[in-house]
Specification:
288 residues; alpha+beta; seven-stranded antiparallel beta sheet; 45% helix; DUF4145 domain-containing protein
């Protein structure tokens, strides 16, 4: 069985290169970690059982549910073939009342596997805070996630790129709020160059190496990740090639929006709240 990352993160029809065994029973079972709506937080999902659908017969392994008829089959030759559909069933190990189901297709020569269905479907909802920050761009973000969920990498890339192009100016301006001293001076100087170009990749290139430590996680630089992805463009590239870059852009975009723009929003809300409190205290003093 491919690792848990495939089941947890891969979109429908995105190929996962993996040498499958010859026999269905040799596919290893693996637990996964995903969000449970009942528990309202990420939980371990325990493997229950798997099915292989072929020629109206079902070969099944795993724990049997009560009163479920099973056709015992003992194949003498390799029974895992191209285009076989395999179903993996999981249940939340905590509440034991929420299931996740994945339908997988065996690829050519058993060299890859891909999802052809899953329940519940890929989540295309937008977090409330992110939606408030993105404002008019929320619709493009949702369209990008829909494309991504169906492995339309070119479409997802295009939607996420459009958002970056529209908000990059505000985003880069807001980053300077996180800098002080000499680092701030260097960044502000680079911003002058940013204002002279309309090319998004060039804008990012001018400041990507001047980010404050708070915006760098270990060896990852979100602006550099976005810059590298945008620099490749779309021309002559496949959905599969664009899909990985779309994923990188979305992940980095969400991180930056939350770390920079959301922080500015919270600062503004705090400032407004404090002004109201001080004004209320001032009026109270005047009355006395």
């Amino acid at each position: 069985m491919p690792d848990a990352k495939f089941l947890e993160e891969y979109q429908l029809y995105r190929k996962f290169e993996f040498r499958l065994p010859s026999y269905f029973r040799e596919m290893k079972d693996v637990n996964i970690n995903m969000f449970c709506p009942n528990c309202k937080e990420p939980r371990t999902f325990r493997f229950l059982h798997k099915y292989k659908h072929e020629n109206k017969l079902i070969i099944r392994t795993g724990r049997l549910p009560p009163n479920r008829p099973v056709v015992p089959i003992t194949p003498m030759s390799p029974d895992l073939r191209e285009n076989n559909i395999i179903q993996f069933n999981y249940i939340c190990a905590s509440c034991e009342n929420y299931n996740r189901i994945f339908s997988l297709r065996v690829g050519k020569d058993r060299k890859f596997i891909e999802k052809v269905g899953q329940y519940p479907p890929w989540d295309i909802n937008i977090e409330r805070d992110l939606k408030e920050i993105l404002k008019n761009h929320s619709e493009n973000y949702k369209k990008g996630k829909i494309c991504e969920s169906q492995s339309y990498g070119i479409g997802a890339f295009a939607y996420y790129r459009r958002i970056i192009e529209d908000i990059i100016g505000e985003l880069l301006e807001a980053i300077q709020d996180l800098l002080i001293g000499e680092e701030l001076e260097k960044y502000q100087k680079a911003l002058e160059g940013v204002k002279k170009t309309n090319n998004t990749a060039e804008k990012i290139s001018l400041v990507k190496d001047l980010l404050p430590p708070i915006l760098k996680t270990e060896q990852f630089n979100p602006l550099k990740t976005i810059h590298d992805a945008l620099s490749k463009g779309l021309h002559g590239r496949t959905d599969e090639e664009c899909l990985e870059d779309a994923d990188s852009i979305r992940t980095s975009l969400v991180f930056l929006v939350d770390a920079v723009l959301n922080r500015r929003k919270r600062q503004q809300e705090y400032t407004e709240s404090m002004k109201k409190i001080i004004e209320k205290q001032r009026k109270k003093i005047e009355r006395n």
